[in-house]
Amino acid sequence: GFNDNPLMPWFGMDIGGTLCKLVYFEPKDITNDELNSENIRRYLTKNSAYGKSGHRDTHLQMNDVSIRDRRGTLHFIRFPTSEMGNFLSLARSKGLTNLGNIVSATGGGAYKFEEDFIKEVNMKLAKYDEFDSLIKGMLFVEASSRTECYYWANPTDDTLCAKVNYDFSNPYPFLLVNIGSGVSVLAVHGPQNYKRVSGTSIGGGTFLGLCCLLTGCNTFEEAIELATGGDNTHVDKLVRDIYGGDYERFGLPGDLVASSFGQMNSRDKRSKVSREDLARATLVTITNNIGSIARMCALQEKIEKVLFIGNFLRVNPISMKLLAYAMDYWSKGTMKALFLEHEGYFGAVGCLLQCNE
Ligand code: ADP
Asked: Which of 8, 155, 180, 301 is a plausible cystine mate for 34, CB 3.0–4.6 Å?
């Protein structure tokens, strides 16, 4: 670590391609020489919205966690990376410049915005690797909370479908599929023993970008809301659209997508499709593509547990259920899709932990 006894406040920052994630540790007992951070503590914990685009995910707050020899609360904050300029102005106006002058950061933005942090708030970034941070963060959060890891039971049945707690205390090996703007796939065999086995540029950023183009929506929340009310079978070409039913010889059911967006070459079909249908088809296309890459990686690496994380899964049960169903169906029940409650925040948590190592 960069400091044997890092001054409060403790932050971890993950500056990604789309979202900046900020984790803040609020100690239970503040010592006298930490009173300098009292203003920032009050500002962060008394509010849940910061400026125009900063949000604190209060439902994810972790009380009574232990880091080093300190107990306290972890707070989870996010804002669009495109708002970094405004974030730095706000931080400056709240007196963040007067605090300890090193902040630990990961993600591409830790490099891209390094100069701006020095210029705007007189802070040096201590940079950590994003995959080291991701794994450290997820192992810590999982170990601190019994209810972190879960899977979806009966993902295709709306009435029986449910989140079920999963005991992840014996984790290795597992595949970690991080769905952010793009996608990275890691095979993890131990806390320090992992490799990046694959990735794809067709990720959460692709979903949001295509959805904005196709439907005119402007936010991720709006895109998900549209998709929730849509039907992808008005857009995609299914096996039954081609065969008139199942393709029995190779066990392909009629309701399987044979060609994503495959109906949209027809002017007539295009004229009948809704924005909701287009959003749903975009979501299903991107999700199934990621699912199939994850499954091939798991097969190649001989791994059965596949953990999906990243903010693409935020407020997005449609994708989680699709992934859960696809992993189970295509692996004939040998692989399991798992999820974590703090899906997008592990890089930032890992960063905060490393400044205390
Ligand atoms: P990155 O580190 O690349 O920014 P994240 O894990 O933060 O990756 O995920 C970014 C993705 O999460 C976006 O591409 C989008 O699909 C999804 N997302 C979820 N919530 C939001 C939001 N409020 N604004 C923008 N994208 C969001």
From this structure: 8
